[in-house]
Specification:
The protein is built from 8 helices and 4 strands; from the N terminus they run H-E-H-E-E-E-H-H-H-H-H-H. It has a two-stranded parallel ribbon. The protein is about 55% helix and about 5% strand. Helix 2 links the parallel strand 1 and strand 2. It folds into 3 domains: about 50 residues, no CATH class; about 70 residues, no CATH class; about 55 residues, no CATH class. With about 200 residues, the protein is mainly alpha-helical.
């Protein structure tokens, strides 16, 4: 259980009195040995008075509550280790089970997004972690970039867009997905810088 209070003696005393009333009514007591007090913006003298009043020990940040890291300022990447480890193990388990595309979508919607939303509803996720979650979902569905031409993404591009055409001859169209248009734009820029498409083909 987590109890929040203002950093002054009257507020802390009111919180402890309320806990005592709760203990009397429910026969549930606070285990002082497993309970710590955390402070922010409190002077050393007042902190010592509060610790003496409550009999608690001072805890240090970060600590975990319901599996989530609690810290008074912005979390560093390393503090999201619980989330990244769970996502990594989930990816490895799903990839080893050879799920169908429908099964992968179900995993992404119910588990991966659920895990990310659980964290996101309690703490502010950094942009890097949001990108990590999106990348994990993308790799689970489309396949890892390490899989090369065997990935679902490459198969989709070849089947629906390239067909019988070469990537060197494919013209950019507005309805193409952004990822494919980005590849084609990079292709054309490279060709302009290196003296033509034929020269790029010869270099590759």
């Amino acid at each position: 259980m987590e109890v929040l209070s203002r950093g002054d003696l009257p507020s802390v005393k009111h919180a402890t009195d309320t806990l005592h009333i709760f203990s009397t009514c429910s026969v549930l007591k606070v285990n002082i040995d497993k309970t710590d007090a955390y402070f922010g913006g409190v002077s050393a003298a007042l902190k010592q008075q509060i610790l003496c009043e409550t009999g608690l020990s001072e805890g240090s940040f970060p600590f975990r509550y319901l599996g989530l890291p609690i810290y008074p300022s912005r979390l560093s990447i390393s503090m999201y280790e619980g989330l990244t480890v769970k996502l990594s193990s989930l990816l490895q388990r799903c990839q080893s089970e050879y799920l169908s595309y429908g099964g992968k979508i179900q995993v992404i919607q119910s588990i991966v997004f659920g895990l990310g939303n659980f964290w996101g509803s309690s703490i502010l996720l950094s942009k890097n972690i949001s990108k990590y979650i999106n990348r994990a979902c993308r790799q689970l569905f489309w396949g890892s970039p390490d899989h090369g031409t065997g990935s679902v993404w490459c198969t989709w591009i070849r089947h629906y867009f390239l067909k019988e055409c070469s990537i060197w001859d494919l013209q950019i169209k507005e309805f193409y997905p952004e990822c494919l248009r980005g590849v084609l734009i990079a292709r054309d820029r490279t060709a302009n810088q290196l003296g033509g498409m034929q020269h790029v083909k010869e270099l590759l």
